[in-house]
Design brief:
Helix content: 25-40%
CATH class of the domain at 95-212: Alpha Beta
CATH topology of the domain at 95-212: Uridine Diphospho-n-acetylenolpyruvylglucosamine Reductase, domain 3
Distance between the termini: 27 Å
Number of strands: 18
Strand order of the largest sheet: 15-12-14-13-17-18-16
Largest sheet: 7 strands, antiparallel
Radius of gyration: 22 Å
Structural class: alpha+beta
CATH architecture of the domain at 95-212: 2-Layer Sandwich
Shape: globular
Strand content: 15-25%
Length: 455
């Protein structure tokens, strides 16, 4: 069976890309997987019907299908496989808002920022906000169950997914969930597909829950000469309250951002916390004052409060740009290990020790209120020995996190880069159960082979 010819006969010609140079842009996501393969064809689906056609043809020929959104993933989850169909959902961007039910019906290619903007027109808000929210797609967010800066108070993607249309391995389009707040009929299959990283089916439409617009936040920025004091402040704040944002940056990430912004960040401190509270009325002032007290009591060298939205957003933007700022220093190995909140200090100081022992730069940013950290290991492309040390450190950071009762990924997904560590984290029995579910829904392993389940 000539798959490309069959696709050409079944789909409009403009949906197919076969030119090698043009296909190259679809081979990798932002993880820049060095082992990415060369696809057979790229199909830019425009509808659920297109996706069904592609999956049916692929299933008959037993050709892999790699679903792909905006390509903003950080774990190699949409890396190409040799001879696969790269199924791009980038042009499926429709958004429909129902202000009465506070719901959105969204196609998977729509950017997170576009959904936020459409909701805002009706005085509503879609809270999940990865740092890449301006250019990451909703489909990709669902594939990895993305979180973001506001998730400490407002939750992650799965908390806002009410339903979806998904094309499964035999080419059927099935409806899961829907525009209902409460629905416990049958197994919660909608939740099964959230975080499945394109290994169980292709999501083509999503029903999202929206909430009333966020109140203007008060921002608190605290500088700490010692890492341990910053993580102690996180615990003390979390013990008393739930701020709408509680973010962490270490010295390496502070300096990288300051290189780019020249906003006057203290280059000598070991850590910075960016905290927001969006409580109503006087409660925000009271909570902000208490956060300041806690930070100063845990030895913050400086603590700054602002009610100015633009000034506060400048600090949030500084946190969001940490990854591209650190990336200016070299190629990156990105992690997103997370631990129970009481072990956050052990994780951060442990990562610092690994960086010293392996003589590699590891910048750490974190959704500190969740215990979810993003260690960024800098690679020198001209130094093979340094790259080898960084690869060793990459595994040691994951081993450290799991040894502290944590996880190898909090929101970026397993993809291909973390797949070798998955079984040791889950354990043999849970891994076998994962594979059994994968096999039941995708018996020929056509969906994203090599991602998550490497064996």
């Amino acid at each position: 069976m000539d798959v490309v010819t069959t696709l050409r006969e079944a789909l409009p010609a403009e949906l197919l890309i076969t030119d090698p140079d043009s296909m190259d842009a679809y081979r990798q996501d932002r993880a820049y997987d060095p082992n990415a393969g060369v696809p057979l064809v790229v199909v830019k689906a425009g509808s659920t019907a297109d996706v069904r056609t592609v999956v049916k043809i692929a299933a008959e020929a037993k050709v892999p299908v790699i679903p792909r959104g905006a390509g903003s993933g950080l774990s190699g989850g949409s890396s190409a496989v040799d001879g696969a169909i790269m199924l791009s959902l980038e042009t499926m961007r429709d958004i429909s808002i129902d202000p009465i039910t506070r719901m959105a019906v969204v196609q998977p290619g729509a950017f997170n920022a576009e959904v936020k903007a459409a909701a805002a027109e009706h005085g509503l808000w879609y809270p999940p906000d990865p740092s890449s929210f301006e250019f990451c797609s909703i489909g990709g967010n669902i594939a990895t169950n993305a979180g973001g800066l506001c998730c400490v108070k407002y939750g992650v993607t799965t908390d806002y997914v009410l339903g979806m249309t998904v094309v499964i391995a035999d080419g059927r389009a099935i409806e899961l969930g829907g525009p209902r707040i409460k629905d416990v009929a049958g197994l919660p299959l909608t939740k099964l597909f959230v975080g499945s990283e394109g290994t169980l089916g292709v999501i083509t439409e999503i029903t999202l829950r929206l909430i009333p617009a966020q109140l203007p936040p008060t921002t608190i920025v605290a500088m700490f000469p010692q890492l341990s004091d910053a993580t102690s402040a996180v615990l003390d704040i979390s013990r008393e309250m739930r701020p709408s944002m509680l973010e962490f940056m270490d010295r390496a990430s502070i300096n990288a951002v300051e290189d780019e912004t020249k906003m006057g960040l203290d280059r000598e401190v070991q850590a910075m916390l960016i905290i927001q509270t969006d409580e109503p009325g006087e409660h925000a002032s009271a909570q902000a004052a208490r956060i300041e007290e806690i930070c100063l009591a845990t030895n913050a060298s400086e603590c700054y409060l602002t009610n100015d939205p633009e000034e506060g957003e400048a600090f949030v933007t500084a946190r969001r740009m940490a990854i591209p700022a650190v990336e200016k220093q070299g190629a990156l190995l990105l992690e997103d290990v997370g631990v129970p909140l009481p072990r956050l200090g052990d994780l951060v100081t442990g990562i610092e020790a690994i960086a010293v022992e392996r003589d590699v730069t590891i910048a750490v940013i974190a959704h500190a209120g969740d215990g979810n950290t993003h260690p960024l290991l800098v690679l020198d492309p001209k130094d093979p020995a340094q790259q080898e040390r960084a690869q060793i450190a990459y595994g040691e950071v994951m081993d450290l996190a799991t040894g502290l009762g944590g996880t190898i990924t909090g929101e970026h997904g397993v993809g291909r880069l973390k797949a070798p560590w998955l079984e040791s984290y889950l354990g043999a029995d849970v891994m076998e159960l994962n594979k059994r579910i994968k096999s039941a829904l995708d018996p020929d392993n056509i969906f994203n082979p090599g991602a998550v389940y490497s064996g």
